[in-house]
Amino acid sequence: MRARLPLVLAISLILFVCGFLWSRAPLRSLAEYDQPFYVGIAYDLRNWGRFTDGFLFAGTDAEKPRPPGMRFAPLYPALVAVTAARDGSFADAIECVVGSSGRDPGCARMASLIRWLQFMMLVAFYALVWWIAGAVLGTPRAGWVALAFALMTAPFLLRFVNLVMTEMTALLLLTSAIGAGVAARRGAPLPWLLVAGVCLGLTALTRPAFLYLALAAALVGLAVALWDERRWQKLPLLLAFLAGIAAVVVPWITRNAVVLGRPALTYGYDSHTLAQRVAYDRMSWREYGLFYVCGLPDGVGLAQRLFGRDACSPFSWDPKEKGSYYNVGNGAFMDETVAAAGGWQHHLSYLVRNYVLASPLTHLLVTVPFALAGAWVNNYWGLILGILCAVLTIRAVRRNDLGLLIVTLPGWFMLLFHAGVAINQDRYNLILILPYAISGAWLVERVLGRSSGALGRRLAG
C-alpha cells in the first residue's frame, strides 16, 4: 500500500486541480469546429448500423441512410455512438445538430458522459506524465516537477475535454504507447512493445496521421535491430511491436477493402487537408516573413502593431477572411485541383506530384514556420519549454539516451509531419506537452543537483 501512496497522491492532486478548473470551463456548441464530423458519423452508426462519411460529406438528409464511407478513422465516432446510446440528452443534441445540417438553431449542449470520459482521459494523461518523467529522469522528484509543469496546461487542455473531438483520446493513447515503450526499457520488453504497438495502432484509428508515426517507428526499429550484433534477439521485439499495430489497424483496412474496394486507413480527408496546406505555398516573400511573426504566441497582435491591421489576414482560419490561404485552399483551390486531378480518387497523388514534388524547396520552406507555429503549445509555456526540449533532445542523441528519445522524438516527428501536410495547429501537437514538461523537470533536476553538490562540498570543506 505504501508503494502505491505516491500514485494516489499524484492522482488526487490532478483531480483537485483539473476538477476545480473544469467546473469553470464553458460548454461549447456541438456544431462548432470539427464536432459535426464525429457526431454525424456516430448518428449514422447508431441509426443505420454502418460507418459513413457523415452528413457533411454524404448528403444532409438525416432521415435518408447514407452509404458506407471511410473518410474518417472509426475509433472516436464509435466512442461517441456508444456514449450517445447511454446518454439520452447527448443523443437528442446529436439529432438536433444533424437535423440542422451542422448548424446550431439552439441545440442543447449536453454531452455529459463523453465529457466525463474525456476528463478521466486527461487525468490519466497527467498521471502518465508523472510516471514517465520519474522513469526516464531517474528520480521520484522529477515526476512531481514534471507534473507541476504539465498541470500549467490544464486550462488549455480542458477546452478539448468539453469538445466532442479526438484530441483527448489521441493524446492518452499516444502517451500510453510512449509509456509502454519506456516500460519496455525497464524490463519485460516483449509484452510491453506489444502493448505499445496496440496503443499506437489505436491512436492511428483515432487520427490517421499517426499511422505515419507507426511506420517511422517501425523503420527506425528495423534499422536499430539490423545494426545491433544481437539482431536475432532484437527482431522479435520489433515483430511484437508490429503485431500490436496490425492487430488493431488491419481489421479496419480489411473492412475498407471488402466494403469500399480500398485497402487503406482512410480516403478523401487526407487530400482535403493537403490541399488546404499546399495553398499556403503560394504566399509572397513578404507574407512568408510575416508568417513567422504571426505564428508566435500573441504574434497576431505584434504583427498588427508593426505592419498594420491586416498583416495576419492571409493566414487566418476565420471563414470571414475570404481571401486567406486557408479559405482559398478549402474552396476555389480545392475545387480546381479536384477537377484537374479527375476526381477525388486521384486528388492526393495529383497534389503530391504537381505541387509538393514539383516545388519541394518551396514546400519545405513553408513547412518551417508552420512547424514553429504548431510548436508553441500553450503559448509562452510552449515557447520556453519547447526551446529547452530541443536542447534536451540533442543531448539525448549525443548520449544515446534511448529512454528520453522515446519521449521526445514522437512529438518532434509529428510536429514536422503535420507542418508538411496540414495547416498545423497547436491542437495537433498536444503530445509535445509530455516532453516539454519533462524538459522542465530535467532543468530543475540539474539546477538542484548542482546546488546540492556545491552545498555538500562547502559542508565537507
Summarize the structure in words.
It is a single chain. This protein has 461 residues and is mostly helical. Among the domains are: 1-24 and 122-166 and 359-461, no CATH class; 29-108, no CATH class. 70% of the residues lie in helices and 0% in strands. It has 21 helices and no strands. Helix 9 (189-204) runs antiparallel to helix 10. The chain starts with a helix and ends with a helix. Mean pLDDT is 90; it is low at 454-461.
Task: Outline the secondary-structure elements.
Blueprint: H1 5-22, H2 35-48, H3 75-86, H4 88-99, H5 112-137, H6 140-151, H7 154-161, H8 167-186, H9 189-204, H10 210-227, H11 231-260, H12 269-278, H13 285-294, H14 299-307, H15 325-330, H16 332-341, H17 347-356, H18 360-375, H19 380-398, H20 402-421, H21 433-460
Helix pairs in contact: 1-5, 2-3, 2-4, 3-4, 5-6, 5-7, 5-8, 5-21, 6-21, 8-9, 8-20, 9-10, 9-11, 10-11, 10-20, 12-17, 13-14, 13-18, 16-17, 18-20, 19-20, 19-21
Question: What would the average pLDDT be, to the nearest integer?
Answer: 90
Helix/strand/pairing class, anyone?
mainly alpha
Head-to-tail CA distance between termini = 42 Å
Give a short account of the largest sheet: none
* Uncertain runs: 454-461
**Count of beta strands:** 0
With helices defined by DSSP (H or I, 4 residues minimum), what is the helix count? 21
Binned, the helix content reads over 70%
Order of helices and strands: HHHHHHHHHHHHHHHHHHHHH
Using only C-alpha atoms, the radius of gyration works out to: 23 Å
* Percentage of β-strand residues: under 5%
Envelope shape: globular
